[in-house]
Amino acid sequence: MSRPARSVKSLLSVNSRVPPVASRPVTGRPEVRSGSKFSDHLNGVFPGLQFPSELARRILTHASHQTATNGHNASLSFIGRRVLDSYLHLFLTSSSALTPEHDLENIAYHTLHTYALGEHVGSKWGLGRTLRWVPAIAPEVREQVSDSPDLRKVGLYKVQGDAVTAVMGGIFSQFGGSVAHRVFHTRLLPCMLVKGALHEAFHRDALAVCDRMGGPEGRLVKNSSTKNVADSAY
């Protein structure tokens, strides 16, 4: 069995062990009361999906933040990384542009690099506006580099990249593989059709799959009577 097939099988096993996150009752804790701002943001980025407040809060809380003791996005990011790797390899191995000269591992490395995801996808999704995180440098050093936009961007792109994979992990766990697959091809991969990310040879096929799945503004949740385009996208 090929590597992508094994990965998808393992993902289905992971999904069966990760129950959807239900919304929790609002309590007096500040982080819970403010949970709606996180779900509001993600619901706006992905129309048609309704993120439970607790799930959205976890997705948009980095382990560096002081509230991370109440839950952060590391485990969802781990799941999301496997989701992305599986979907990308399925796409690449089914593409007519693939030749024996292509190095799949190298292509995947550049396409799914954390900083690249943060810069091109995380910024497009506006994650930095609601993401909770703290730069991993001492306060006195932070003051010295506060005027360096390049250094600030490096840190932001890293945590945004982690948040992107957490979003994918959250979507896969909460809404299922079909929705996550459609998000990958219509909302994420088109953002990586830039220099240094997805290999140019695969750009045409990436756009074609995106179009078959409804395009960048297409519905993410299909009616039960509608043919599952995600399963026949290749």
UniProtKB/TrEMBL annotation:
Q: Which GO terms describe its molecular function?
A: ribonuclease III activity; structural constituent of ribosome
- Where is the RNase III domain positioned along the sequence? 53-190
Q: Name one GO biological process term.
A: mitochondrial translation
A Pfam family this protein belongs to? Ribonucleas_3_3
Task: Spell out the Gene3D superfamilies in the cross-references.
Answer: Ribonuclease III domain (1.10.1520.10)
One GO cellular component term, please give it: mitochondrial large ribosomal subunit
Return the SUPFAM superfamilies for the record: RNase III domain-like (SSF69065)
* UniProt name for this protein: Predicted protein
List the source organism: Laccaria bicolor (strain S238N-H82 / ATCC MYA-4686) (Bicoloured deceiver)
Lineage, highest ranks first = Eukaryota, Fungi, Dikarya, Basidiomycota, Agaricomycotina
